[in-house]
Specification:
globular, 13 helices, 7-stranded mixed β-sheet, Aspartate Aminotransferase, domain 1, 3-stranded antiparallel β-sheet, Aspartate Aminotransferase, domain 2, alpha/beta
């Protein structure tokens, strides 16, 4: 079946965070990680079928949901997961926050590496932990872990927790096994618990490569590893997402569950339905989506490359591009782009680097072309102004 990603989906006045932020304007929003495509038809069908029953109520992850999840992990990554390892969550962010409370004591260190999804940078303080940021290194338009700096941070006796994002949001890296093994070797040496946010696991734009879960790359380190996953990004389920932690070590799992009591609500009935339908029936939809996103990625890369002074590292994974706009010398980049280009981007500052913007390219090609036309005109005018 051929799926349609070209038709422009009107989401205005639907209480969409993404679109109604700019209600009453012609600003094109390319910010929050929420696709502008319809949900996969098999998911829509499954939800409508479930709604034939008039009751929802508190719901568990039934056997069929668990089986679909385990089959997905086995078929996609060769990862054999025991059902007992699964901890169901209403979202990955709640899992990140809970993990920060689950290990260590007040004043202990939580290590992460910016630029990174902004929730990583905001969860330590409410949990009474100290955030230790070991920034990623950028060289020749390529981002990587700063292994010596990570080891130095991990050697501090107060260091208890290391939090990763793989594939990486916002820099778009698809880390290989060797990179993940180098990080996990540090965690092993200094006895750190590692939490790996892998919510973008299926969104691989480099066709010759594949995503590898940290647990698969480092099987000897699963006793200290918590993996957070969800179909919500891959299958466009934002707002109805069902997530899960994979924790093979029983002691870690008990600690995680203990701190979740009374703090994390269960996933919703419809989110379980959407997860199962995604994993069981949406492979063809996913493959066509990835091809479409690759085309959008290439269109955006071409646009940025012809603008002097702007840089976009190759987007290997996710649908979120990370663009260096430092040469535009903007004091307030979001407002400037809203006013001069009528575009809404995610500013880089909350992710840890104000010299960048993050662009969501998961939209129709028509929308993206119009956005890039506005982008190019505004940036060229700014560069001429600065010349």
């Amino acid at each position: 079946m051929q799926y349609d990603f070209d038709t422009v989906l009107d989401r205005k006045n639907t209480d969409s965070i993404k679109w109604d932020k700019y209600a009453g304007t012609d600003i094109i929003p390319l910010w929050v990680a929420d696709m502008d495509f319809p949900m996969p038809p098999p998911v829509h069908h499954a939800l409508m079928e479930r709604m034939q029953h008039p009751a929802l109520g508190y719901t568990i992850a039934g056997d069929s949901v668990v089986e679909a999840t385990l089959e997905h992990l086995k078929q996609s990554y060769g990862w054999t997961v025991d059902p007992e390892w699964l901890v169901w969550l209403p979202g990955v962010v709640s899992g990140l926050s809970n993990a920060c409370r689950a290990w260590g004591e007040a004043g202990d260190h939580m290590i992460t590496s910016s630029p990174i999804y902004y929730h990583f940078l905001g969860i330590a303080e409410p949990a009474g932990r100290e955030l230790v940021d070991v920034p990623l290194r950028e060289k020749d338009n390529h981002w990587s872990f700063d292994i010596p700096a990570l080891e130095k941070a991990a050697a501090n006796p107060r260091a208890k927790l290391l939090m990763l994002c793989s594939p990486h949001n916002p820099v778009g890296r698809l880390f290989d096994a060797e990179e993940l093994q180098a990080v996990m070797a540090i965690a092993r040496q200094y006895d750190l618990v590692v939490v790996s946010d892998e919510i973008h696991d299926g969104i691989v734009l480099d066709e010759e490569r594949a995503f590898i879960p940290t647990a698969v790359a480092c099987p000897e380190d699963t006793d200290r590893l918590v993996t957070l996953m969800s179909p919500s990004k891959m299958y466009n389920l934002a707002g109805n997402n069902c997530s899960y932690a994979i924790i093979s070590d029983p002691t870690l799992r008990a600690q995680f569950n203990y701190h979740a009591k009374g703090a994390i609500p269960p996933a919703t009935p419809l989110s379980y339905v959407a997860l199962e339908a995604s994993y069981r029936h949406c492979d063809e939809w996913r493959d066509q989506l990835l091809e479409y996103l690759r085309g959008n990625r290439d269109l955006l890369q071409t646009s940025v490359d012809k603008l002097d002074g702007l840089r976009m590292p190759r987007l290997e994974a996710t649908y979120l591009a990370w663009i260096d706009i430092s040469n535009l010398r903007l004091n307030d980049a979001p407002t400037w782009f809203e006013q001069h280009a009528r575009l809404g981007f995610s500013p880089g500052e909350p992710f840890g680097d104000a010299n960048y913007i993050r662009i969501n390219l998961a939209c129709s090609r028509t929308t993206l072309r119009e956005a890039l036309n506005r982008f190019e005109q505004a940036v060229q005018a700014r560069l001429q102004e600065l010349a």
